[in-house]
Amino acid sequence: MKSTDKNAGIKSRKHASSKLNRLQAAALASLAMPLALHAETAPEQPQKLPEVVVDGARTSDFQVTKSANQKFTAPLLDTPKSVTVIPSEVISQTGAVSLTDALRTVPGITIGAGEGGNPVGDNLFIRGYNAQTDTYIDGIRDSGSGSREIFDLEQIEVVKGPNSAYGGRSSAGGGINLVSKMPKAENFINGSVGVGSSEYRRGTLDVNRMINDDVAVRLNLMDHNADVAGRGPVGGSRWGIAPSVAFGLHSNTQVNLSYYHMQSDELPDSGIPFNNPITSGTNLSKNGNGTPISVPRDTFYGLVDRDFRKTQSDIGTIDVQHHFADGTVFRNVTRYGKTSNDYVWTQPDDSKGNTVVYGTVWRRANSRTTSTDSAANATSLTGSLVLAGIKHSYTTGVEISREDTDRSSYIFTPGTNNPLTSGTTCPTAGAATLYNCTTTVNPNPYDPWAYTATVSPARNKIVTNTRSAYAFDTVEFSPQWLLNLGVRWDDYRSALDVPQYTLSGVTTAASHAVVNADFANYQAGLVYKPSTNSSVYVSYGTSSTPPGNDGGDGLDALTTAIQNLKPQESKNYELGTKWEVLPGGRLSLSGAIFRSDMSNARVTSPDGTSQNVGKKTVKGVELGASGNITKEWQVFGGYTYLDARVADNGYVNVGTTAAPIYTASPYNGNMFPTTPKNSASLWTSYKLLSNLTVGGGVSSMSRVYANVNNTKYAPGYSRYDAMASYDVNKHITLQLNIQNLNNKFYFDKVSSPHYAGVAAGRSGTLTANFKY
Prior knowledge:
Blueprint (H helix, E strand, L loop, with lengths): L21 H20 L41 E5 H6 L5 H5 L5 E3 L12 E3 L2 E2 L4 E3 L2 E2 L11 E8 L3 H4 L6 E7 L7 E9 L3 E13 L2 E13 L7 E13 L5 E15 L4 E2 L34 E16 L5 E21 L4 H5 L1 E28 L2 E19 L1 E4 L23 E3 L12 E4 L4 E17 L4 E18 L2 E3 L2 E3 L2 E18 L5 E12 L22 E14 L5 E18 L5 E19 L4 E16 L2 E3 L8 E3 L13 E12 L2 E10 L2 E2 L7 E2 L2 E11 L4 E8 L7 E3 L5 E4 L4 E9 L1
Parallel strand pairs: 5-8
Antiparallel strand pairs: 1-7, 2-3, 3-4, 5-6, 7-8, 9-10, 9-42, 10-11, 11-12, 12-13, 13-15, 14-41, 15-16, 16-17, 17-18, 17-20, 18-22, 19-21, 22-23, 23-26, 24-25, 26-27, 27-28, 28-29, 29-30, 30-31, 31-34, 32-33, 34-35, 35-38, 36-37, 38-39, 39-42, 40-41
């Protein structure tokens, strides 16, 4: 019988009912119509002041001239760093409905897969480095694992290169800043209702109302339900609400209060296992080639009656800004957030060679129940001044934060091993194995599973505290020469406590681990402007990744084995150029060459311990374009080349324990996992008629390895998308999107050495967008 433990969360139903269902969404849209009519007849509102959070200045829908990140002290044109801003128009045209959907338009970013120690959720790699913890909402770190939505986003900013000078502890690859929608000094109602293949249903509503000249409120709603095209029973539902209110829109002191809630309920995907390479032994003749095994796209190894994933995010923010008469801005942001990620999902484990030897798959049950509470306060001062005839545009500030994570997993009775072998070897499949083993070809996701699942008494409690101070300055020696400088100091403290627990009659003693580290990071960039619409720059930056960087909710969880290690340190050198060309600077072009070196990368030594003795190197080229070629023709895209190598992976013992013989790691010189050499994307749209626009996109990526051995990989691919939109009138637009137009069977998530995530097949959606 199934467990009665309410915490177990095991559900047999495929999709839970959304709290905000489609009928309710439609009702809300209907109720909003009178407000829209009122907005048309309301007196004209005063023009809004320049926004501090989001600068909408642009010469076209696809070109953003200034970042929303206050730590950038110059326009993007004069910022000596690779920055890609995905505007709302690109998000809308491409039909993106999640953060990972939107990031498909940015080359140089890959999506990693969940694993035993790595949670299911947004697992991003930028320029070859894991950036799972480098996502920020309006400049403040978004802690905890999850899958992020885009219904409340104005734009998405991707910063390439070392991110520690901006965000503190981080990867060497970069970071992502999500810019939220905030109240504006105008009245409008926007929304969308969409239907499509694979049970796609989605509705959004965005209402902004002026209460008076100085107060405005904004409400964003979302309800979404869809299967994953071509992936059998995989899919789910989610809903979200994001109210906000702004005070003092036309005064020197402005206060924004906002709240964000999003929760999801889904059946997570299980992926397809790799064709396991065999280099020795009796089964050598069955050696696999290292690619995912050849099975139909809809092959699903999970169990509908067991697998589930539920997430929830609640974030409240108080943002206070004061504008002084000289243009200086004082800002203080206080935020509290709580996220949870609760799941059981099947990993088709090939570690025992079942796939190539027996034609079976062990249904390994990966699970997690985790919650993260985070509190942060950030204070900054931004302005400009002239010293000795030289102009300085600066920002300086302090940040403090605390993250509390409580993480455990599920235990299953009678267990998930094969009772016939008392292990994970599966010579056979079916009922006799308690359905913990299934066939490689044509597995049945509806195999019965009616056993007990309870939360494990083994719990990890991680508390991370940080204190930071930073300063950035753009020094303008002349209209042609600028110097960008930045420094940040971080005090990082993280502690792990595992209370004593008893499991299966065995008592495990309590354990404790602590990391105390402080580090400073720098950046410097010299900018030369051949003309007002161009820049050429050379820059240098550093990054620090301390042990337990993920706050206990990721692959880099703090343990006693790594607590005494130093932060991994990276240096980045970049030479680049940016141009705003064509009349009005309507097309932005950029290019850069760069090199990143991690000098004390963490490796496993021959005695099994972790040491800071490795080296990693990434050399690359990046090109980008965004804006209008003509008034009717818009483009957004780029290309990235990454030569990411494990320069030094330490040593291995090729002898015996008694008589060790140490030699350099055979993996020296191998490619980073999850890093394609070549990746490119392009989205373009053209207005054929005054009311008809067509568009299309291509995303391409070369081979991606799943392990440092470089023996397992997902092949390269190219996928195509298409869009057409028709303006029915000034209020309503119909938009048709065809995703994966060529129905390409490819793999879009690769970081586990056991399996690869399968991308969705061809799907179509029709959306009615309205604005009043």
